[in-house]
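Take a specimen:
=====
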Amino acid sequence: MKKKLYLANPYGFSKQTRNLLYEFINIFDDLNIEVYEPFDRTKHIIQKEGECAYNIARSNFHDLQKCDCIFAIVNGTPPDEGVMIELGIAIALKKEIFLFRDDFRNCSDSNQYPLNLMLFLGLPKDNWEKYYFESLQDIKSNKKRFVEWAKK
């Protein structure tokens, strides 16, 4: 059975950055992982007339529940608030969590972690770096945890 990954990201808000998602999705496809990309999965809701915000949020929540992990793109200072909420939900649901940040700007409230310390509650205390990626090559690295998780 294919593992399911929720790809939390802010890239769907821009046509230019949306294309970046395919680089991530290709890596996940190569590892035989089913990707739940929220912008793609809710486009049918957005096309309906009327208020759709609640329905989008509800759909994303249900997708998070179904997925085995969340892979969150956490660029920005601060990172996208929707992605942060999705991460909070994933932490509460005890999902496997992977963080991607190739943004070189400082976004931390401590010297121990590169992001808000609360995000690291979802990662192991020791070796959290194995769940944190700074490049696309990192995702495929055997020194990191993602490939091992995908294949088990």
The chain is about 40% helix and 15% strand. The mean pLDDT is 91. Residues 15-30 form the longest helix (16 residues). The CA atoms of residues 139 and 146 lie 6 Å apart.
